[in-house]
Write a structure and sequence with these properties.
There is one protein chain. The protein is mainly β. The chain contains 7 helices and 41 strands. The strands form 11 sheets. It has a 5-stranded antiparallel sheet with strand order 6-5-4-3-36, with no helix packed on it. It has a 5-stranded mixed sheet with strand order 33-41-40-35-37, with no helix packed on it. Strands 2-32-31-30 form a 4-stranded antiparallel sheet. A hairpin with a 5-residue loop joins strand 13 and strand 14. The relative contact order is 0.14.
């Protein structure tokens, strides 16, 4: 059977929102629907969707977790009391009309932090960035280029295998950056999520963004009012078929409480699908994809509210169910299951990594909570205590290890008073070379040439050196840092905005770095707080993009590639190619990035424009899924990447 048509929508398109006025959550199915096999079933109503349990979220002890709210911009949220206009209700539906009313109310209430203040602040940051960056040469340190508005805060970020980027967060309830922006403790429809796609091929203007609204849900908060799923501060990771699985969110109240929500985003049809609720509510959980393509979900504040982290570990999909492998295998109404052992993390968002031994490494924020999980035997054992004490939100990166998968992790950031980095390898910790200064809320990325880049950072949660909820920032937190192949760090150029809590970054297929996030700074420097563009994006060009012409990558295999198998790519620059690498796409939030991975590919021969390569040895080295393949010349200049899928069903 051919690919069925997408569900139709009632109502007119809205000039402010690029998506349909009604949520496209469609159909039910026992497992997932293969678009080639089963037709879509009738669309379910909100009552059919059921309601998830109440949930909570863990606190970041290092900053008292004032996270009292989550990133988001809200139309409906900004004005829970704002009554929608009758004509808008008739045209758009009550939920969408309420969103418009909320945005109008938020804009009207912006006088407490006037537009003139935001405009002057943004100009000051632009000028100070320009002054600071005169000291840096692009061919040595890279440079920041574009800075442009975004319709979303980007609390959650994912580089999709279609080349587009998914951003999602919450609807804002406040436009004053000295107050809590998000609906963390809100009950009812103002506690809602939102999501957008950015298509880099369409540029940097509003038309480059498309709304992909979360499914409409009923939350067990006593109101049972439909709203876009409040899945902010959830956990997420990629499935082998390129879809993004998202777990948890905020039920509201109790200082923030964990939701049992489970979704996938299908990048191929740009649609959200809902799965069966998890066993436990989770707010601020972590998720990692293992060698078998299944996902392990840990931690997160429970449905009982903030301060009640759940020790329950879950696996998705359940072992009795197949792993969604093909692009047309859509997980829908699919169940997770309880894992064999618990993970009693005291604090949220632990760093999780699947390393080359096939084990899952759970590195908690508390120094004494470092564990090794066996995903096959379903056991847990202790790892040595980390040398550093408690770490708040900070980076952790699986270090590149050549032709094999990573066998060590570098933990950095999370303590503004400790600039050192700490490496776990071979079951022991070592103290590695420090960065220039300590910072929290930072994001560290592996670049195609295997060097590391740190962007973003703050003194603590929503504190940039001048007190909580004060947008003024110490310049140093805007400065990037670069780590070379020998492990040496050096300062790099400054970014436009300081970005701390809820900041994010990822490497794009063209080798540039996208930087976004931090709703406080974005609304404090919004060039037009009255429009629909709440957020902002900055683009950074690493030094390798300023060292001459790039190699060309003309063709890669279109099918799946087995592990430890020879394959070929085509390049007009084949004679100049010295290295070929796979870089896993990033999905990140709260400085937690479990998906990063960098592998070299063995070159088996070069004949004319054909380069012979061998894939990584096993799924433990490189879990199944989509990777960006880069060619690098002798100067470390990468080609633009093409996507390959690793792993045979």
């Amino acid at each position: 059977m051919g690919v069925p048509s997408r569900p139709s929508y009632r109502g007119e398109a809205c000039p402010e929102h690029t998506g349909p006025p009604r949520d496209p959550q469609a159909c039910s199915s026992p497992l997932w629907r293969s678009r080639r096999r089963w037709p879509y079933r009738p669309r379910r109503t909100p009552a059919d969707l059921g309601s998830p349990p109440a949930h909570d979220r863990p606190g970041d002890r290092s900053a008292g977790h004032p996270h009292g709210g989550v990133p988001g911009r809200s139309l409906a949220r900004a004005g829970a009391a704002a009554a929608p206009a009758a004509d808008e209700v008739a045209l758009l539906g009550e939920e969408h009309a309420r969103a418009h009313a909320g945005r109008r109310a938020a804009a009207a209430g912006a006088a407490g932090y006037p537009q003139a203040t935001r405009t002057a602040s943004l100009e000051s940051l632009r000028a100070s960035q320009a002054r600071a960056n005169t000291a840096f040469v692009a061919s040595e340190s890279g440079r920041f280029t574009d800075f442009f508005p975004s319709p979303d805060f980007g609390v959650h970020l994912a580089q999709l295998p279609t080349g587009k980027v998914l951003l999602f967060s919450f609807e804002r309830v406040e436009t004053d950056p000295t107050k809590e922006t998000g609906p963390t403790d809100r009950i009812g429809p103002t506690n809602a999520g939102r999501a957008y796609l950015w298509d880099p091929t369409r540029g940097t203007g509003p038309r480059a963004f498309k709304e992909v609204r979360p499914p409409t849900v009923l939350m067990p908060d006593g109101t049972h009012v439909p709203r876009p799923a409040p899945f902010f501060c959830a956990g997420h990771a990629f499935l082998p078929n390129g879809m993004l699985a998202v777990f948890g969110g905020n039920t509201g109240g109790k200082g923030g409480s964990g939701a049992k929500l489970s979704f996938v985003f299908d990048p191929w049809t740009e649609t959200w699908y809902r799965n069966r609720d998890m066993v436990a509510g989770r707010w601020y959980p972590s998720v990692v994809t293992g060698a078998d393509g299944r996902q392990i979900i840990m931690s997160g504040q429970s449905e009982r509210g903030t301060g009640t982290p759940t020790p329950i570990v879950e696996r998705f999909p359940a072992k009795r169910l197949p792993v969604p492998w093909r692009p047309y295998d859509i997980p829908l109404d699919v169940a997770a299951e309880r894992f064999g052992v618990d993970a009693p993390f005291r604090n949220d968002y632990p760093h999780l990594f699947s390393l080359r031994d096939g084990m899952i490494y759970g590195l908690g924020r508390d120094a004494d909570q470092q564990w090794l999980f066996d995903p096959v035997a379903e056991t847990r054992r202790d790892l040595p205590r980390r040398p550093a004490d408690f770490r708040g939100y900070g980076s952790a990166v699986p270090l590149p290890a050549g032709f094999r998968g990573p066998d060590s992790v570098l933990v950095l950031g999370g303590d503004p008073h400790d600039p050192h980095t700490y490496r776990l390898a071979g079951g022991r910790w070592t103290t590695e070379q420090p960065r220039a200064f300590g910072r929290t809320q930072d994001d560290t990325l592996i670049l195609p040439d295997a060097t590391l880049l740190t962007v973003n950072g703050a003194l603590s949660t929503r504190d940039y050196g001048n007190g909580p909820f004060n947008p003024k920032a110490d310049l140093k937190y805007r400065q990037t840092e670069l780590r070379d192949a020998r492990g040496h760090w050096r300062l790099g150029p400054a970014q436009r905005l300081p970005r701390g809590y809820h900041s994010n970054a990822l490497v794009m297929p063209d080798g540039r770095v996208m930087v976004t996030g931090d709703e406080l700074q974005q609304i404090a420097n919004d060039p037009d707080i009255g429009d629909a563009m709440d957020g902002s994006v900055e683009l950074y060009e690493p030094a390798y993009l300023h060292r001459g012409p790039r190699p060309s990558l003309d063709r890669v295999p279109g099918g799946e590639l087995a592990h430890d198998t020879v394959f070929e790519v085509r390049s007009r620059s084949a004679a100049a190619v010295r290295r070929v690498v796979l870089l896993a796409p990033t999905t990140v939030t709260h400085a937690v990035n479990t998906s990063q991975r960098h592998l070299e590919l063995r070159v088996t021969g070069v004949r004319g424009e054909t380069i012979g390569l061998r894939t990584p040895p096993s799924a433990a080295d490189a879990p199944p899924g989509y990777y960006m393949l880069f060619l690098l010349d002798g100067r470390g200049v990468p080609s633009a990447a093409k996507w390959v899928k690793l792993g045979l069903r």
